[in-house]
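seq as requested:
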Amino acid sequence: MRGLAVILTLMALPALAGPYDGLYQPQGANWNCRDIGQDGGAISVQGDTFEGVESRCKLQNPTAVRGMNATLYDAECNGEGMSYGYRMMLMSSPPGLTVISEGYAAYLEPCE
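struct tokens:
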């Protein structure tokens, strides 16, 4: 009986938050911050999941980038019927987030 109580308590705890958790939109955009992952909807980072427009990525093998308040990940993604992977770096850029991948960098503002 005690084991069941422990399991139920653990199930009630929120998932572990990551350092970049939040809802974002591209800088200067006026996106709908309720519809996550849809065209014109919010970009979401929750724990080890990055959800962009019509795509969802599992962020794996986090590696802290020394002196940059950033983390490099292996992103394993699915979107528009395809699976793909690439390297993605997330960097705190108060009040938002900078997303960097090969040949691409974007500043994301927090959704309000």
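The chain has a mean pLDDT of 86.
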